[in-house]
Amino acid sequence: MKSTKIIYLDCAATTPLDSRVLEAMNPYFSDDFGNPSSFHSVGMQAKDAVSDARGTIARLIGAHEEEIIFTSGGTESDNLAVIGVPRYHTKALMEKLQALPHVITSAIEHHAVLEPLIAMDRKKEIELTIVGVNREGQVSVDEVVAALKPNTVLISIMTANNEIGTIQPIGDIGREILKWRKAKETVFPYLHTDACQATGYLDLNVEKSHVDLLTLNGSKMYGPKGIGALYVRKGVKLQPFFIGGGQERNIRSGTENVPGIVGLAKALALVQADREVESARLTALRDRLADGLMKIPKTILNGHATERLPNSVNVSFIDIEGEAAVLYLDAVGIMASTGSACASTSLDPSHVILATGLSYEAAHGSIRFTLGHSTMQEDVDYVIKEMPAIVERLRMMSPVNMDMKYFT
């Protein structure tokens, strides 16, 4: 019999809408319904709301209002950055260097970054370098620097990984890029970072991190789905996808999603205001959960032990299938995942776990627990209590019995 108890530990997939965010959004569904591009007073009310939201987001990340472009979410923001920048500069690079735009990214990026770049590389639109990560899932700054070329126009490295939670050295990469630009007397490369999972946990100030483009997603921060933003530093040029009315500085045409934009700004303000207190609370729960799960024999902690998001625990239980474990967890009321929800339709093992050097067997047995505002100690203790029996049952049914010497 399925449990009626619900413990939601999949906040990296999405978060519930904060009631305070919904309250802020509500007037713009029906009362203040104007089109921000209209010149009458109803339209101006909507325009003012969008402007206020843009200003709030800019202030929270240390940017200027005109540097915030609203999109439909994290995927569109990522696509716009990694496709739009190289395409804008293709003609000039071919004329000056007789070379395609070169892009550097990492092997553990979200599919919204990796897939378009791989597709463009196959079509000979760009030259692509994919740098690896170490066992803890961290990118090497030296490897990124070594990959730089005169035709490198963009580097895209995520702030923190969505599957294993490992935090990347974005500030260090940004400083090395500044040195390269100065030495080569060039404005390239630009640095893009997907900060969707870092929101609410890390400082997103773009001046401190030296990033030129930054992706945000409302649904990862207790905001609405279907809304995101891309920070584009002044002077950075990129080719738009949508052509039309010229909204968002001609970079993203289309009538603005006013309720979503208002909700995005409210959500970001709330989570960033509470991030230090909430991060400290969740770090203690995260470590309690990881310690409890690691007592199960033949279990591996994926990602960095300490340089990881406060809400993220990813473990591999050897000899079991992660998908089966997720179903058993669901039956006892625990909502977890095997990795990115965006790749859940594929049975392929996690490209992130494989990139850290673990085997297919370990990748297939990985489970991600991502904590959130509703997570309490009793929830963590419940998972620690239920998980051993689930793993034992699945191992009894498994034809596989790997020796742990292959995983050390």
Description:
- The protein has 408 residues and is of the alpha/beta class.
- Helix content is 41%, strand content 13%.
- The protein has helices at 19-25, 41-61, 74-97, 111-122, 141-146, 170-184, 206-209, 258-293, 322-331, 351-355, 360-364, 377-397; strands at 7-8, 68-71, 102-106, 127-131, 152-156, 190-194, 213-217, 228-232, 299-302, 312-317, 334-335, 366-370.
- Strand 3, helix 4 (111-122) and strand 4 form a beta-alpha-beta unit.
- The longest helix has 36 residues, at 258-293.
- The model has no long low-confidence stretch (mean pLDDT 95).
Show the helix and strand layout:
Blueprint: E1 7-8, H1 19-25, H2 41-61, E2 68-71, H3 74-97, E3 102-106, H4 111-122, E4 127-131, H5 141-146, E5 152-156, H6 170-184, E6 190-194, H7 206-209, E7 213-217, E8 228-232, H8 258-293, E9 299-302, E10 312-317, H9 322-331, E11 334-335, H10 351-355, H11 360-364, E12 366-370, H12 377-397
Parallel strand pairs: 1-11, 3-4, 3-5, 5-6, 6-7
Antiparallel strand pairs: 2-8, 7-8, 9-10, 10-12
Helix pairs in contact: 1-8, 2-8, 3-4, 8-12, 9-12
